[in-house]
Amino acid sequence: MTQVKNKINIKGKQITVLGAARSGLAAAKLLKSKGAKVFVSDSGQAERKPEAVACLQRERIEFEFGRHSTRVFQADFCVLSPGIPVASPVVKECLQRGIPVYSEIEIASWFYTGPVIAITGSNGKTTTTTLIGQMLRKADPHAVVAGNIGQPFSDFVLENHKNSWAAVEVSSFQLETINTFHPQQVVLLNFAPNHLDRYPDYQAYKAAKWRVTKNLTENDLLIYNAADDEILTRLPKLHCRKIGFDINGNVSAHAYFAQNALWINKQKWLDVSQMKIRGLHNYMNAMAAILAAYNAGVPKEDIIDVLQTFPGVEHRLEFVAKINGVKFINDSKATTVESLYYALQSFDQPIILIAGGKDKGSDFTRLNNSIRQKVKTLVLIGKAAPKMEKAWSALKPIVKARTLQQAVVQAFERAQSGDVILLSPACASFDMFNDFEDRGKQFKKIVKELKEKNEAQ
Q1: pTM for the whole structure
Q2: Of 4, 269, 337, 438, most Cβ neighbours within 10 A?
Q3: How far is CA 270 from CA 101, 133, 259, 278, 360, in A?
Q4: Strand, coil or helix: 281
């Protein structure tokens, strides 16, 4: 199924890319390959981004680091990296000068000729996108898995994926600056307060997410969470095909969870005991993935095979090690209150929770009942630690740690055989780490060293 795209000729256009992280570099390379004159501007210091500098030099793309000079505004349009807010001074000036600003997924969509599944929501995006991608690749090895999941969409445009489906995870930051981005399927998982350090309020955050439906037509498909009231309220306004999934056993939904099984169109597909991933949140992710893949033409048997073998994604409730009967779980991907909630519900054993990081404007008191019921001891790190302590100090013993290394050691000192030490921060990572992947990898390294030390004694 090849999509007819608008023929966009950018040859000779002056284009500024703001931000030299992964998506910015990918967009710059794509645009240069299409004949544009590209300039990359990053406010960070060059010595802190040697790989980006090397890439730009290798590609012979002009750049600046350490500032956004007036050269930025010598552009027909700008491409915005998701880490740079639309409200930042440089973006505001672009818009005031009448210079259009687009996201990297918008740019990539101009040149990708295959059909697209866009996955968004407050929680579960990466797991759902990965599941859909594995299902698609059962039918087509060239299927693309890209976007906010890790590899920019632009990286795939130059490769041989002309007729292949693409599963693209899209964030609210990326959706703020789309224009013609037109997926053939949208998977809308849920809404919960997030990124309130960047948005003026929850309504603004939701408005950014809803932009994913901006260009849907009556031939396109929306796969939605039928148990989410925010989504149900907006459905009548959308003029496209719509199918829902429901975790509460609502048999009127196209997919639902009941009797410990996943049901599709009122037919039982598989018992959840056959799946490696566990928890209600993962059953929701699985139902969304089933509907997306099945409607993209993936056979039922291939979908079920993926569900039976899929181990989960790295940094999301990932088992790391067992030391003296204590399990260590890496859930560094949990950057929201809701993600931590689902993580806590996934264990019956006593939990020593390592949480904290850069607060995104979250209300941590919403977790009070779960903390009270599931957590044995709290070990808090990062800038959000005082706010978390204020929310939870009356509920459980609290220990504060200056580093992740110290947090792991203090957690282990308080653990007994049968306990779970869970890193599930409910915060962004940027106060102490490059990103959630860096945080998760450091956690795993620390646990590995602790295990080796313990075995040597």
Answers
A1: 0.85
A2: 337
A3: 45, 20, 11, 14, 38
A4: helix
